[in-house]
């Protein structure tokens, strides 16, 4: 009897904890007519769902672990999107664990005790995810102009920041990181004055992004000296300077595409390069001949060799997994193109044949 009672108590506690951790769901404008009203009413861990429409608000996010879900949640900022949940103003994040997914952030505004920004993250916070948002501004970029940044964290630093699948257009700077621990992946930074700035990189990973037609720099790295920067598999094209190093440590920038198969231009280290220029103290060797895998050149179905082509290289990978099923030594989930049966067979071969010779790399589109 005591055991049954104990099991009941433990189960009740587990259910209660699960209910608490899940948080409530608040809808705008159904429950509250403004996003700030929903924030004021929310508790830690709540989800705020924001319907499409224009929200002329400056938001103070002063509750921890809030999740903001816009009309285009899960859809890349460079993808085919429906009518936006458009925040016209700034978002100031002051506590940990905030996520924004599927919004449009328009123009930004001056943040009190801060700067001109779309999303402004207070220093010393952590655990934020900014994904699938469209950041737009009608300023003077890419020619320069005003000082508005689409997204910035204070110099006090930020940790465990995820910035992915967003698009930044028309800003003085798309993403500005200071003393950051961050992962910046699969974003498009196009038509800004500076695509991205990093000052004092603590541990920053920049992969599979597109830096296109930025007026001054695609990426600029400034002092203090960086601790750790991973910069690879990005696409640079049409920038006055693709990568500019303004601090003392060398930047390792191998395995990026620079807008031409001849590589980036540097008067000393690659004077024959016809791609975007890079500054001194940037190691760009080896480079990629074409863009592949970034948001503007996503791999086609059947690209098992991860080069944005479907060809005999992919067939060789596919053949090595032929007739395998999950658990076999030669099993490959990637080769299970027709995924319902979990066997690499003629159904998967038919999918590979359907996409044969497709190419989405920048050198063939």
User: Main beta sheet: strand number and arrangement?
Assistant: 10 strands, parallel
> How many beta-strand segments?
30
Instruction: Indicate the structural class.
Output: alpha/beta
Number of domains: 2
Instruction: Please give the share of residues in helix.
Output: 10-25%
Q: Topology of this protein?
A:
Blueprint: H1 2-22, E1 25-28, H2 35-41, E2 47-50, E3 53-55, E4 59-61, E5 67-69, E6 85-88, E7 91-93, E8 99-101, E9 104-106, E10 109-110, E11 116-121, E12 125-126, E13 129-131, E14 134-136, E15 149-153, E16 158-164, E17 167-169, E18 173-178, E19 180-185, E20 188-190, E21 194-199, E22 203-207, E23 210-212, E24 217-222, E25 229-232, E26 235-237, E27 241-245, E28 251-252, E29 277-278, E30 282-283, H3 312-320, H4 346-354
Parallel strand pairs: 1-2, 2-5, 3-6, 4-7, 5-8, 6-9, 7-11, 8-13, 9-14, 11-15, 12-16, 13-16, 14-17, 15-18, 16-19, 17-20, 18-21, 19-22, 20-23, 21-24, 22-25, 23-26, 24-27, 27-29, 28-30
Antiparallel strand pairs: 10-11
Describe the model.
The protein is of the alpha/beta class and 365 residues long. Strands 1, 2, 5, 8, 12, 13, 16, 19, 22 and 25 form a ten-stranded parallel sheet that branches. A hairpin with a 5-residue loop joins strand 10 and strand 11 (116-121). The model is unreliable at 1-20 (pLDDT under 50). Helices cover 13% and strands 31% of the residues.
